[in-house]
Amino acid sequence: MKVLVTGASGFIGKNLTSYLEKNGHIAIAVDLRSGNVVGDITNVNFVLETLAEHDFDSIVHLAAVADVKACIEDPYSCYKVNSFGTLNMLELAIKKGVRRFIYSSSANVYGTPFELPVKETTPINPRTPYDYSKVVSENLIISYGRNKALPFVILRSWKLFGKYDVPTTAVSRFTSACLRGDPIQLYNAGRDTTDPYHVENYCHAIMLSLGKEEAIGEVFNVGTGNQVSIRQLAEMIKRLTNSSSRTIDLPPRTPQEASPMRSYPSIDKIKSKLSYQPTILLEDGLSRTIRYQKDLLTE
Fold first, then answer.
1. Cβ atoms of 276 and 215 closer than 8 Å
2. For every one of its 299 residues, what pLDDT tens digit does the chain have, with 9 covering 90 and above?
3. Which segments within the chain are labelled E, that is strand?
4. pLDDT tens digits, one per residue of 91-138
5. CB neighbour list of residue 69: distance below 8 Å, 6 or more residues apart
6. Phi, psi at 265, each rounded to 5°
7. What CA–CA distances, in Å, run from 243 to 67, 142, 174, 238, 290?
8. Average pLDDT in the chain
9. Considering all CA atoms of the chain, what is the largest pairwise distance in Å, rounded to the nearest integer?
10. For residues 249 and 123, is the Cβ–Cβ distance under 8 A?
């Protein structure tokens, strides 16, 4: 299978292209900065001419402005990339007659969830421009499915971590602090909860979505189905690194974050329809990430 991957130079993209190739597929890496094809997905000519020249069976659309703060400060750029960029990729998918269009959405569409665990039927509750941009893109994709018979799959992911992750995420920050012996800073006393999981599990979900007909036209939550507090996550990393770092409780970063954010998914649907099971459990995933960050420190 030949798979065109947008956002291929990012955290998920690097892991996914490697995962696809290890599993016998050909990945065509597309990104603004580097890859097999370099260009901007907001440029219609680049998408419908340059990318259309390449031979591929499916598209995995990861490219997005993922920095929530940047999206709040510049919502126009957020929507331009995250929503209009998606629209361009949908046009390409129709033009090429792809067998699968997989979209990387986010648990952010649920905002502060109305129920726990969060199901695919739980009403969405977006808060920031980033959240809304994902909702807009999901609706664009569904409309192409209904009106253009596009064979799509939408994946709503919880907190990913692993190799190539950006340094500002919780797992990266906590691991770096523990390896250096620095204090571990916990905003809002680490009371928020989520479902952190290793990126290879997400790559596995994408592979299943590419290969199984049962995935077409569906929206799936992706995670492990477990609820972990940010404090528990920090303590786990501290234990796995044998670190003497102390935790420091900080106030919420914003008044809106004063109430703890609790969110974790039901993954019953993806397990039932696609036989998905997490391949890497939390402690193993954290241990792999710790080894990766250790190697970076010694380079």
1. no
2. 999 999 999 999 999 999 999 999 999 999 999 999 999 999 999 999 999 999 999 999 999 999 998 999 999 999 999 999 999 999 999 999 999 999 999 999 999 999 999 999 999 999 999 999 999 999 999 999 999 999 999 999 999 999 999 999 999 999 999 999 999 999 989 999 999 999 999 999 999 999 999 999 999 999 999 999 999 999 999 999 999 999 999 988 777 677 889 999 999 999 999 999 999 999 999 999 999 999 988 76
3. 2-6, 26-31, 37-38, 58-61, 100-106, 152-157, 160-161, 184-187, 193-194, 197-198, 218-222, 228-229, 247-250
4. 999 999 999 999 999 999 999 999 999 999 999 999 999 999 999 999
5. none
6. -95, 155
7. 29, 47, 11, 5, 12
8. 96
9. 58
10. no
List of residues 6+ apart from 115 with CB closer than 8 A:
122
Q: Which phi and psi (to 5°) does residue 241 adopt? A: -95, 0
Give the helix/strand (H/E) hosting 14.
Answer: helix 11-22
In the numeric block, the tokens 């954010």 are attached to: 261
Contact 225, 195 (CB under 8 A): yes
Report residue 159 as tokens: 């907190």
User: What is the reported pTM?
Assistant: 0.96
Burial class (CB in 10 A: 0-12, 13-18, 19+), 272: exposed
Q: In whole angstroms, give the CA distance from residue 218 to residue 203.
A: 17
Nearest partner of 154 among 83, 106, 110, judged by Cα: 106
What are residue 45's DSSP bridge partners? none
